[in-house]
Amino acid sequence: MSVLQLARPEIVALAPYSSARMEAQGGAIFLNANESPWPPPQDAGRGLNRYPEPQPDALLQRLARIYGVRSEQVLVGRGSDEAIDLLVRAFCRAGVDAVLISPPTFGMYAVCARTQGATVTEVPLRDDCLLDIDAVLAAVTPALKLVFVCSPNNPSGGLVPLAEIERLARALDGRALLIVDEAYIEYAEAISATTLLRRHENLGVLRTLSKAWALAGARIGALLAAPEIIALLRRIMPPYPLPTPSVQAALAALQSEAQALMGTRVAATLRERARVAAALATMAGVRVVLPSRANFIAFRIDDAANHYTHLQANGVVLRDIGRYPHLAGYLRLSIGLPEENDRALALLARAEESA
Question: Which residues lie in coiled coils (predicted)?
Answer without folding.
Answer: none
